[in-house]
Write a structure and sequence with these properties.
Strand content: 15-25%
Largest sheet: 6 strands, parallel
Shape: globular
Oligomer: single chain
Distance between the termini: 44 Å
Number of helices: 12
Strand order of the largest sheet: 3-2-1-4-5-6
Helix content: 25-40%
Length: about 325
């Protein structure tokens, strides 16, 4: 029995012994976040369990097509303790926010399934594989190890997470197994056009306006190898943008031919959020780790605990320059 098989058996034992199960992921939902949660909720229901998606954030419009979102409940409305809490795609407890963390801590047993190398193994059972390009890929492997039969809804959720967290199968985190797992999901008659249109071809006017506005702020450094863009609170207000509308801006900048590292600085009420994307030379985690963050080699994020955008830019560039050497 290999390591994943052993962990999967423990995972199944905990599910078998539980009736009321909470499932959650990190704040600022993305495709792998929502894909893994909705896939897990779908599987738990299929196994006859009472599953609740604990959601303390707003679901971006592009992911509202996903199944099992109707199981979502605000943590402020939940007072009962759960037999089991399954955290997905979250590297640490703080990433889920204080309201969800409260429920996690009050649950009898906890499971942590994730693919971030910075995961701090915060649950009773930790199934973490930092070589997996997406939590949804790891989850698909767990289901396969246990001979759990999927259905169209579960397969749709898993494919969504794999597609989004691999940059539509472009990132160097993928391997041959990624394509094998993705191809297996087509056996369940997933609607690839529905997934594609919702995620990649439904950009709203406000999101487009925010993208254009942010591009007007772009600055280049180190012979155009590093590019920085800003999203201010004023930008968000003027474009009538939602929080998730800033998603995709840093990737757009990374795709400029000379750029090796793209940096997005997003102004919040009490801090500046940092997003980093690189192509091939820079390890984003080495930069993010200097700013209370982490993530993946080609995609990381962090938090700068002040509101001076100019200082934030200079500090990030100073750290990033060392990675270009």
């Amino acid at each position: 029995m290999n390591k994943l098989d052993s962990f999967s058996c423990e995972f199944k034992e905990l599910i078998d012994r539980s009736e009321k199960i909470a499932v959650a992921s990190h704040l600022n939902p993305d495709g792998d976040n929502l894909g893994s949660v909705t896939a897990m909720v779908g599987m738990l229901k299929k196994l006859g369990k009472e599953a609740i998606f604990v959601l303390d954030d707003i679901i971006p419009n592009s992911f509202k097509f996903l199944p099992n979102l109707g199981s979502a409940k605000n943590p402020r409305d939940l007072r009962e303790d759960f037999d089991l809490f399954i955290a997905l795609d979250s590297s640490d407890l703080n990433r889920m926010g204080p309201n969800v963390s409260r429920i996690f801590k009050n649950s009898k047993k906890t499971i942590n399934i994730d693919h971030h190398f910075s995961n701090d193994n915060f649950a009773s059972l930790n199934i973490v594989d930092d070589k997996s390009p997406a939590t949804c890929e790891l989850l698909a492997r767990i289901f396969e190890s246990l001979d759990f039969e999927l259905n169209k809804n579960i397969a749709t959720s898993l494919f969504t997470g794999i597609s989004t967290d691999t940059g539509s199968f472009k990132y160097d985190s993928i391997n041959s197994n990624t394509f094998i797992i993705a191809s297996e999901l087509f056996k369940y008659d997933i609607n690839i056009n529905e997934i594609t249109v919702n995620i990649y071809q439904s950009r709203t006017k406000s999101k487009t306006d925010l993208l254009i506005k942010s591009m007007n702020s772009i600055e280049y450094f180190c012979d155009n190898k590093i590019a920085v863009v800003y999203v201010t609170k004023d930008d968000m207000t003027k474009t009538n943008a939602e929080k998730s509308d800033a998603d995709g801006i840093v990737e757009f900048v990374r795709d400029i031919d000379t750029v090796e590292l793209a940096v997005l600085l997003k102004e919040k009420d009490d801090c500046i959020r940092l997003s980093l994307r690189s192509k091939s030379k820079i390890d984003c985690t080495k930069i993010a780790s200097q700013f209370n963050g982490g993530g993946h080699v080609r995609a990381s994020g962090g938090t700068i605990n002040h509101l001076n955008l100019e200082k934030a830019k200079n500090d990030v560039i100073e750290v990033a320059k060392k990675q270009l050497l």
